[in-house]
Amino acid sequence: MGENMNRYMTLGQLGDGTFGSVVLGQRIDTGEKVAIKRDKMLSEPVIRNIMYQVLQGLAFMHKHGFFHRDMKPENLLCMGPDLIKIADFGLAREIRSRPPYTDYVSTRWYRAPEVLLRSTSYSSPIDIWAVGCIMAEVYTYRPLFPGSSEIDEIFKICSVLGTPDKRDWPEGHQLASAISFTFPQFSPTPLETLIPNASPEAIHLIRDMLLWNPSKRPTAQNAIRYSYFQVGQKLGGGNAGGAMGSQAASNAYIGQTGNVRRSNKWDDDDFKDVMGYILLSLTIRLPIICLSVCRRSTF
Predict the structure, then answer these.
(1) 264 contacts 237 by C-beta, under 8 angstroms
(2) Does 206 share its domain with 107?
(3) 280 with 90: CB under 8 angstroms?
(4) Nearest-angstrom CA–CA distance, 77 and 139
(5) What residues are labeled active site?
(6) CA nearest neighbour of 76 among 154, 133, 146
(7) Are residues 88 and 209 in the same domain?
(8) Residue 100: is the preceding peptide bond cis (ω within 30°)?
């Protein structure tokens, strides 16, 4: 039976069902436990709306001099049928603050290569890398780089992106040499084969957000201008179509030329609202929005 998944939180995985994994869930208002199975894949308009809001939020945050340092699906909260908010700012730092920064930030699967290689002078591009990982995962429901350790994480990245060219990212090779690490030799795997349900425009955006060299990744503000978002769809808290639900009163409309007709850009009150989640312990993985309750039972 399909229900509003904002009423539930996930407690753990029960097993694999015929059509996907089954997780243990709990209704927030009553405490009732249920079995939840993953429903159909999210449509691209839904994913586009999610990613637009995430990038819009990051653009505002970066503009105000902060970077998150722990972007991952668990830190994206579904606040309504169409509204995604960034949560958990416990690792956030000021962009203008002076290095060295700690080298243990962000969850491993979403950790940028410069951080994996122990850079202490990274900045906001690590958030963009994480968003690239998240975007790929939203399409497939599988992490793109599910490394079991930091070394394995780099191997997983190399197996998808190919070995970084020293001419393209000399700083990365210097970081690797400093910790006596040698990049494994891989040819790149086309992202189209790993994310077959993504459009060419989506692949283009993901690929650019996952560039080895952090200085070559797009800023959050520039990422919003990519052709992926220029499809005449209402974005930024309104109706994305498909499974995301009803239309909200205030949204952004991005036309073929990229002009914003009605804006839902974040203001200072929005920023304060999001910062209020710093101590929030409730985290729900993004795929919760496309789950359905399949049976009620006693656990």
Answers:
(1) yes
(2) yes
(3) no
(4) 17
(5) 70
(6) 133
(7) yes
(8) yes
Does 10 lie in the same domain as 123? no
Q: Can you give the pLDDT at residue 68? A: 81
**pTM for this predicted structure:** 0.68
Q: Would the annotation count 33 as a binding residue?
A: no
- Model confidence over 228-240: pLDDT tens digits? 999 888 887 643 3
C-alpha–C-alpha distance, residues 117 and 174, integer Å? 9
pLDDT reading at 116 higher than 80: yes
pLDDT for residue 131 is more than 50 = yes
Hey, what are 253's tokens? 């409309």
Could you give the C-alpha distances from 123 to 14, 104, 200, 208, in angstroms and in order?
38, 14, 28, 17
Question: How many domains are there within the chain?
Answer: 2
Higher per-residue pLDDT: 113 or 86: 113
Range of the domain at 289: 5-41+284-296
- We report the CATH number of the domain holding residue 9 as 3.30.200.20
Do 134 and 217 belong to one domain? yes
Check if the beta carbon of residue 120 is closer than 8 Å to that of residue 99.
yes
Cα distance between residue 111 and residue 106, in whole Å: 5
Does residue 105 sit in the same domain as residue 162? yes
Q: Give burial (CB, 10 Å; 0-12/13-18/19+) of 30.
A: exposed
How many beta carbons lie within 10 A of that of residue 237, not counting itself?
Answer: 24
- Same domain for 95 and 37? no
CB half-sphere exposure, 46, CA atoms < 13 A: 20
| Domain match, 119 and 205 both | yes
pLDDT confidence bin for 32, thresholds 50/70/90: confident
How many angstroms separate the CA atoms of 199 and 228, rounded? Answer: 8
